[in-house]
Amino acid sequence: MGMINGGHLVGKYLKEVENVDIVFGISGGHLESILDSFTEYKIRTIDVRHEQAAAMMAHAWYVYTGKPGVCFLTAGPGFTNGLTGIANAFLDNAPLVVLCGKHPLRDDLKGALQEMNQMDVVKPIIKWAATCYDVKRIPEYLAIAFRQAMEGRPGPVFLELPPDILNIKIDEALAPMPDRATRKYTVHPDDADLKAAADIINNAKKPLFIGGTGIGFSSCTDCLGRLIDKTGMPFILLNHGRGTLPDNHPLSIWDCGNVGIMLTASQADVMVVAGLRLNWLLQSGSIIPATTKVVRIDIDPHEIDRNRQADAGLVGDCGSVLGQLEPLLNKKEHREWVTMLRAASQSMIDGEIKIRQTASDPIHPIRLAAQIHKFLGDDALYVVDGGDTSYFGLVGFMSRHKAGVIGSSSGLLGCLGTGIPFAMAAKLARPERKVLLLNGDGSFGFNAMEFDTMVRHNIPIVCVVNDDCAWGMIKHTQEMSIGKERLQCSELGMRHYEKMVEGLGGHGELVVKDAEIIPALQRAFESGRPACVNVMTDPTVTSPASVLFYQSLKME
Amino acid sequence: MFDIEIGEVYSVNQKMDIGEEMPMKLRLLLFILYQKLKKAAKKNAAYRSFLGNMQVKIMIKTADGKHGRLFIFDRGKLSTLTGVTHPYDAALVWSDPDTAFKVLSSRSEEQTFRAAADGKLKVDGMAAYVQWFTDGVKLVMK
Questions:
Q1: CA spacing 20 to 30 A to A146: which of A21, A169, A293, B136?
Q2: Looking at the predicted structure, is the pLDDT value of residue B8 above 60?
Q3: Do B122 and A480 touch (CB under 8 A)?
Q4: Cα–Cα distance for residue pair A423/A420, rounded to 1 Å
Q5: Do the Cβ atoms of B117 and A343 come within 8 Å?
């Protein structure tokens, strides 16, 4: 065997052991030998314009492919720039592998370039973190990192690699590549708990199944489908679980939107909550009446009784647990219940349905989402980013694909700016699909320079900016809390974002009238380039999410 | 839906001259509801906090456009207007006055759900504001 340096050991491990074929980041002096390894081992690099986008893309890579995403950050500011993306992955339980540069160990405490204590900064927002001090152990550390990211409840991991080890050459035989563990660990819930859960579901008259990211990350389409078909339960899949079964499945209630979830939850006698935290978005579980029986399924035992005592709790990977539960369930139908909840929900969103169907001037954002969906249908991948914009997109779009509609900023971090990186990752992961991003004009600003990345790397997504000239959710919340005449830091003004994208080499469209929406989308997709369709929408429209947001922060 | 005793409706009916053009029971029910909310907005600390600075107009009306009452929330103050022609942010639209009265006075979320499922109750405008309004009513009535 020949000689190899530490940086090349990184590329070799990624390619030969983990089969990584794409990574995200920005170059930096501390990482040079790793960068060279990407060339050596033919790993595609997507070099972005801000490291937070790299972390967010790597996070999204897992959402769209089921493979852990890898990002590389250079030391110091590269590291600090990536923190928002790491924190977002942490709160999303996404297996993100962060490879980070570090000042030379030899220069520690001497005031080295970009010397800082990165480890203490990152530890609260990471599942596992380590610094590698021995070039021979780089493959071993990487193997630990990938296992930590993926096993149990997934999460981001952080590996610091100083140039003292990256730039040292050793005999390749001293650093053999470990075998990748192929075992799949499953946890078997207690038989009595399985039976208790089955009894509850079998006796349900008005059941509802709500699945979350744990469903999506479990890749359990087949067993979830069998369980739903057998039990006849209506269901809704949220967060990264969305699309594990198609939004237009006969028993999916996505056509009833968020209002349907709230209404149905208030009437259900049994709720199966799988891979989903009962967090603020579900009012910490208070949307479930006290009399409703609750079955919780989660890979993390701490979630089973969190915010709501479960009547039956099943710990394990969602797919594994559903597979064990399904044989114990009776074949049932709940047609009358499903018909009733669907009719009731439709009545409650009757006003919204009319808005979707009616041309408006100024353009109503719900109408905008409806026109986009009319043009693209359910065969596209949709990403939604913003405050009010997230509501309009999440209820306005339906997809038949896994992760077909992702509210990238709707996670626990509420991280605006994730839409562009997520949409880029979606297009890279599934190049055969049209990818549409509905972005608020506020959130657009966080990663808008990534249109340059899209142009350089030929990533032709279409970004529709829902342009209400404001941080809409904040503005409308301020209107409720401090009053319309005292708005502070919430208005943005009309800007030609489409011209900015044109300037970066993309395609731009400005839309001010309803009739222009679909022709502009047509031209944007036909351009074959990254495109921005800047749509001026009614700035007075408040989404239901703003009301929820307002109520959740009112402390008196 | 609204926790108001039917007896209260008849009691107020004897004291108030509120016109004949709208079925009396519904009109009375909405008037009493307004009175209760107005009183709570002044004296109930929890409800005052709930209202905050919200500026929302909620209409409760019948689908034929003959009967309605507007509840105007303006930074903790509550006022009202009768009639259906006023602009609103969200409206509960009932198929007919009898159904409206029965369900509103039933204290039953299930009855409301069934009325919606039967198409006898629809929401115009933003459902979230209706949810906010009904949450407030529940707070006052508990």
A1: A169
A2: no
A3: no
A4: 5
A5: yes
